[in-house]
Amino acid sequence: MRLAVEVERFSWRCPFAQRDALREVSLAIPAGEFTLVVGPNEAGKTTLMLAIKGIIPHSLAGRHDGTVRVFGEPVAQKNAAVLARQVGYVFGDPDAQFTALTVEEEILFGLENVGVPTSEIGARIRRASELTMISDLLDKPPYDISGGEKQRVAIASVLAMDPEILILDEPTSMIDPLGKDLIVDICGSLKRDRRMTVIVVEHNVEAFAPLADRVVLVRDGRIEREGAPRTFFDDVESLIDCGVYPPQVTQVFARLQRRGLYAGPLPLTDEEGVAAGTRLLQGAGRWR
Amino acid sequence: MGEAQIAKKTLLGMVPADSPFYRFHPVGRMALLIFLSVTPLFIDMPEVNLGLILVTLGLLWWGRVRMQQVRRYLPLLVTVAIFMFGVAFLAPGNRTALTPIRSVGATFYFEPMWWAFVSYCRLIAMLFGAILYFSTNRERDTLVALRSLGVPFAVSYVAALSLRSAGMFMEDFKTIREAQQARGLDLESLSVVEKAKLYTMYTVPLFAVALRRADEISNALFAKGYTLSGRPAGGGRRTDYLRAQYPVRARDWAVSVGLVGAFALVAALSKTTGVFSDHLSPLRAVVVGMVAAR
Q: What tens digit of pLDDT does each residue of A116-136 get?
């Protein structure tokens, strides 16, 4: 199994900080896997993603120990252009990452940086904008469009570079429910059609849990827990204590389990919930 | 594509996408900016500058720029006039060497008033040249023009980033002001001194936000593989997709060279022969005659 990301006992402390933002974190993510990273605010999730992207230590000053490797090579030894080709990063605040004056220029900026030939750029822009449904926005300034559109532009500008790993840092935090659904759909198609290694940092686990191959809980600068979603969300109460809210349907069935009314596996999606509920009611003889 | 194909959003407004200006390459349009906005610096004769203003207005009309859009600048023209003629009236200089004119119960002096008129015509001609350029061009056009002229990527990129930052700065300013108003600040009730103090206070959050944005943009540039040299990984020339979309044709070069040449000719004639001096102005001769007759 080829590893896309290997983090080995990695610690990081910002200048003048009292404690490490990351403390001896170790994590291995196989290529092609969809990883959901959860945890309370200030837990170190974004810092971990910045380390995988190489912004730490290349761009941010601070003290670090341990190693972060992408496809076997330490990120500290890779330059910006190589990292841009391998790891795409969508920031939580899309405004923070816009560096151009129109959406089209925003997408092509990265392509020019990594040396994609001019003849290929048009096709890449078209592909990325079609996938993210922003084809009609190419001529507009990126700061003059809605929050959901901004987020999709940010994703398109990264996808156009065709990275092997895509990191999305709270991609739905600033957008409406319809916009959220679109982002989840895009992530679904990346997993399904491109088999891309996707890492999503998100509080809204409801939408992403069904897509995830693995969920990682970061807390107080450490990885406190990781596993496949079905086992990860088993201990609902302790997750809630950590500030992580499993999908509502999972919480409902966990309560039923505690009261001895349900004994099956906890559902993760609404569909699984309906199926489990139907079985439960049929078993109780209350459903025809 | 909707609006994007019908009209282009320029730096100062909206212009139909089929405006005749767009038949010309951005380099040609930038050459026109140089001709209309810089040439008046070498011309003192007000008739010529007034002629340039008329030409610019004609180009605005030809370029299908909405005249309401241009009318917005009328208060600016009036304010500049009041300021310039006010200074010439209140502080005319060494009065013993000047020609006094008694009119409407006050004493004016011909030379400073005439020089204010000459300078005003020049300034307005330059201003209209800039209005024409920014009303018909987008930031992208400026970028393409700069890159087509061989300006290094890093320089043109910093210019574009500055244009973008100006917009962001105004957005941040608006946000901070709205946040203050939402918390009960009534700008109308403040005196001028209090308003001045308030504007000084804006600098603190604006400065903090600017620093944060600089940090964010620096991370974003790294994330997109940008290096200070602007060269792609592995060396070689940086690809320029944007420029490739705007091929410069022979006609564009002819227009650009013609305009820059005309500018150079005017500058040379002005410096060597003084042909554009205000002393050769027929209008001046008429006004001097009227003053002498009083």
A: 888 899 999 999 999 889 999
Tell me how far CA of residue A27 lies from CA of A4, A6, A52, A57, in angstroms.
Answer: 11, 6, 11, 18
Whether residue A124 lies within 8 A of chain B, CB to CB, comes out as no
Q: Model confidence over A211-226: pLDDT tens digits?
A: 999 999 999 999 999 9
Range of the domain at B171: 152-230
CA of A100, closest CA in chain B: separation in Å? 7
Q: What per-residue confidence (pLDDT) applies to A285?
A: 66
For residue B242, being part of any structural domain is answered with no
Is the CB of residue B211 less than 8 Å away from at least one CB of chain A?
no
A282: tokens are: 């049929």
B74 and B214 housed in the same domain: no
Longest CA span, chain A: 67
Q: How many domains does chain B have?
A: 2
Chain A: give the shortest CA distance to residue B213, in Å: 7
Q: What is the mean pLDDT of chain B?
A: 86
Complex confidence, ipTM: 0.80
What CATH number corresponds to the domain at position A69? 3.40.50.300
Domain assignment present for residue A215? The answer is yes
Task: Specify the number of domains making up chain A.
Answer: 2
Residues 34-73 of A with CB under 8 A from B: 50, 53-55, 58-60
For B54-67, what is the mean pLDDT? Answer: 92
Are A79 and B233 within 8 A, CB to CB? yes
Give the range of the structural domain holding residue A178, as residue numbers without chain letter.
Answer: 3-229
Put simply, whether B220 touches A (Cβ < 8 Å) is yes
Q: Where are the beta strands (DSSP E) in chain B?
A: 7-10, 13-16, 100-103, 106-109
Q: Can you give the pLDDT at residue B3?
A: 42
Mean pLDDT of B239-264: 90
Compute the distance between CA of residue A69 and CA of residue A83 in angstroms, rounded to an integer.
11
